[in-house]
Amino acid sequence: MKKLLSILKMDFLVNDNDFKNWRLILFLSVLSLIMIASGHAADRKIFHIAQLSDDLKMLKSQFVEQRTALMNLKMETKIIKELGPLGIGPAKSPPIKIIVK
Predict the structure, then answer these.
(1) Quick check: 78 and 72 in contact, CB under 8 A?
(2) Which of the ends of the chain has fewer CB neighbours closer than 10 A, N or C?
(3) pLDDT of the residue at 12
(4) Per residue in 2-41, is it b (16+ CB within 10 Å) or e — as a string?
(5) Rounded to the nearest 5°, which phi and psi values hold at 15?
């Protein structure tokens, strides 16, 4: 019972040889602070990676949309349709090959 009361009264911190106990308590406190900081840093990195992953998915979908739009713009029928009002159309005869001797 006396041991329990001495622990509850924290006699081990105010005795003559309490310096050892204080060093141990200080070491454990610093160690726990380092572990907490490490956990927070890991959580921050996980959230950052998740955000980057979402950004990557969005950029990939934009790339596919732009590539599809470009393919549609490059189609011959689309070009003929757009340039028709300007009087520009496909050639009626094939191109002539020029041979230089």
Answers:
(1) yes
(2) C
(3) 67
(4) eeeeeeeeeeeeeeeeeeeeeeeeeeeeeeeeeeeeeeee
(5) -75, 180
| Percentage of residues of the chain with pLDDT beyond 70 | 97
- 90: Cβ–Cβ under 8 A, 6 or more apart, which residues? 76, 80
Contact of 51 with 57, CB cutoff 8 Å: no
- Alpha-carbon distance values, 28 to 7, 21, 22, 84 (Å): 18, 11, 10, 81
Q: Give the Cα separation of 11 and 64 in Å (integer).
A: 71
